[in-house]
Amino acid sequence: MAGRPLSTRGERLFHCSRTPRCGRPVSSESSAVMDILPFLLVQCLNALSQAALLFFLGVGLTLIFGIMRIVNFAHGTFYMFGAFLGYSAVRVTGSFWAGLVLGPMVAGGIGAAFELGLLRRLYKRDDSAFLMVTFGLTLVLGEIIRLVWGVNALQVEVPDALSGIVFLLDEPFPVYRLFLVASGAIVAVGIWQFLERTRLGLLIRATSQNAEMVHALGVDVNLVRSGIFGIGCGLAALGGVLAAPLLSASLGMAGNAIIDAFVIVIIGGMGSFPGSLLAAILVAFVQVFGTYYFPDFAMAAMYLLMLLVLVVRPGGLLGKEA
Amino acid sequence: MSVSRRVLLQAAAVAGMGRGAFAAEAIKIGIPVALTGPVGGIGAQMRRACEFWAKQVNAKGGLLGRPIELIIEDTAANPATTVRKVQEMVERSGVRLITCIVASNEALAVVPKLAEWDTVFVSGDNGDGRLTAESLVPNFFRPNVSGPMGTRAVTLWLRDSPMKKFYGIGMDYAWGHNSMEVFEAEAKRAGKEFLGAVFSPIGTKDFSTYITRIRQSGADGCYLVLAGDDNVAFLTQAKQYRLGEKLQLLTEQVDEMGINASGDAAVGLIGGSRYPATLDNPANKVFVAAWQAEYGRLPQMFEGDQYQSCVVMQAGIEKAGSIEAAKLRAALEGLVVTSIKGPITMRACDHQAEQPGFVVRVVKKEGMEHPVPEVIAIYKADRITPPCNQMAYTD
Hints:
heterodimer; A: mainly alpha; two-stranded antiparallel sheet; B: alpha/beta; Rossmann fold; seven-stranded mixed β-sheet; three-stranded parallel β-sheet; 15 helices; 15 strands
């Protein structure tokens, strides 16, 4: 029994809407393969959009490490938590933008509460205590997410305003990815200005250099720590909300995310904010072009880069030499 | 005195019977299923089908007069964990029969141990062709559709399509590579050009580079061997890049979970289906009605395929009168079971069930919340099932 013949090349095969050029005849034989220039442009933008998500992950982890000297194992789980919170916020309020605000706020609040309630009691212990406790948080939070949202991947629709495509040198590119690149840039500039220009930013930088001195000067260092832990977790969750329309919210997110975040922090230098930005961009480019030219080594590319950095600069690109 | 003695004897007899009925030892079936990780959603479907089947059987007084007890463990799709969990089931709980393993690499890790455990494994969804070819063991049975069979249905359909050049993307593990090999061979046999394939690691989140590669290939059609979260992520992103306007997306298996999670992104997708709920036969109608009464929706693909495996297992146990591996094996070989896909034959030579192949297209329907798969072609069992002990086809 034969199926119905398919439409031939050049015909419109799928439903589409919203874009003026939608349904235009598909390229002819000669231009079936993309030219080099549009290809490079699309790949660079792909890389930058990935870099934005990696940056949200890495910057929170590195801020927390810089101030508190602890490695937050639960960082990937907060990223995943953000994606699920974003899903629910969109379901309840009908607005993606509400999710973008509510997700990081809830996750940041829980992060700050966790620091206040648990981590604070452990500062006198050695580092392994933090590893155990934050790893425990990973398991608990992960299980709560599974109980509340279930095991299936949940799709978050791209908000209408960003769901179209633009043609860059005649190649279609999703507007949402451009939006990701822009949000990455805005958040990077925002954090930079926050650290440089505000009093809290000043305190954060001071605490990271000499917490005891800051404390001696009459500043409540503990409050700064709770704040920074909350902000770090909130940034991870923001990344999660932004990633949800692209990758959908799923239980597998956390495991990948925490590894990516560690790689970013190690390459950029533990505790270095500009380092995390540089590392996110570097890793994204290596992944995007590595996957294209050497798909069999897609997984290894990022780790090879990390190895190389560790050999040349053991403290990370912009970190203090270990 | 004599009266009271008779009463006493009656009471003893009743008590004895009662004890007999209650003490009928349960048939324990091991369910080492991935409930977490990228294929956790598929695992949830398969587990639901097993539970539904066990509930049905137990409501009718059980199997061989014994109740069915499912022993469920999460494997997280990690082959090493799966082997360990099954070992525990066998040693601690006395399990001698397992089903419901999700991923093929888990199944491939388990089969070499079956003889040692004296345990029969009835596959519920494992697709890797090798399981009934080079890796076949006597205690393994596959009532479900294999990967090569799913691919075969799609390629038979492709023979009549005007598409010429194909590219592929598969998950970078046993099933992905195996199905892609079969697709390549079948596409070439159909006189089509196979331009190459790329494999993405399990758990890949961002497919943008792969999508660029597919666009770059200049193919008319792209064959997907993706499942679970990866499938959802790919379909969603392919839609964002308008990949479907450039070429036709084809897939080995159209799975409702992927469709529901990716929304309209799956509309237009053409692919094989292991079990479309709309099949028109009496057994399927009974099954679908019972399922809807229980869950308030149609059964999904993996639910149907796993349920069919349970029914085959049940028929085997009834025929053997036992779950002992040697007897069950003999009973299953050559067994014909009329189930939700019509009559299927559990082939003795390689333990693969001969059954029809379905090709579906994902369409949007009025009044349905999600897009649905619509059957566009059905191929008979003898066209779909490969020659004994093989993964490749000869015509």
